[in-house]
Design brief:
Elements (H helix, E strand, L loop, with lengths): L2 E5 L2 E4 L4 E8 L2 E12 L6 E6 L5 E3 L7 E6 L4 E6 L8 E12 L6 E7 L3 E6 L1
Parallel strand pairs: 2-11
Antiparallel strand pairs: 1-3, 3-8, 4-5, 4-9, 5-6, 7-8, 9-10, 9-11
C-alpha cells in the first residue's frame, strides 16, 4: 500500500522560514500531481500549493510570493518552502498525491488519490 510520509512541521516565530517534506513510499508506478493543503480548527481545508508532473505550479492567493512548492521525481517527494510566515498560516498541513500503484504484484494497477496524516505548523506572534 502506498503511504505519504510527511516531516518538517513545528513551531516557528512569525516572519521565520519553514520547510515541509513529503515522500511517497510503496509499489509506485508513477505520480501525477502533488499538492499541499492546510486546515485549521473551524476552517475549511484549503489548497496551499500544487505542482503537476511537468512542474507547473499553482498557489493560493494568501501565500503567493511567500511559499514555493517543488518536487524530486527520483525520490517521489514534494517539498513546501515557506518564508515570512504569519500567525494565520497556522494549521495542519497535509500532503496529497495522485498515484498509479501496483496493488497486488502486477495484476491490478490503479490510479488513486492519497493523503498524508498531516503535520502541524504553528506560527507564534
Amino acid at each position: 500500500q502506498v503511504q505519504l510520509v510527511e516531516s518538517g512541521g513545528g513551531l516557528v516565530q512569525a516572519g521565520g522560514p519553514l520547510r515541509l517534506s513529503c515522500a511517497a513510499r510503496g509499489s509506485i508506478l508513477s505520480i501525477n500531481a502533488m499538492a499541499w493543503y492546510r486546515q485549521a480548527p473551524g476552517k475549511q481545508r484549503e489548497l496551499v500549493a500544487r505542482i503537476s508532473s511537468g512542474g507547473s505550479t499553482n498557489y493560493a492567493d494568501s501565500v503567493e510570493g511567500r511559499i514555493t512548492i517543488s518536487r524530486d521525481n527520483a525520490k517521489n517527494a514534494v517539498y513546501l518552502h515557506m518564508d515570512s510566515l504569519k500567525p494565520e498560516d497556522t494549521g495542519v498541513y497535509l500532503c496529497n498525491a495522485v498515484i498509479w500503484a501496483d496493488e497486488d504484484g502486477g495484476i491490478t494497477q490503479r490510479l488513486r488519490t492519497y493523503w498524508g496524516q498531516g503535520t502541524q505548523v504553528t506560527v507564534s506572534a
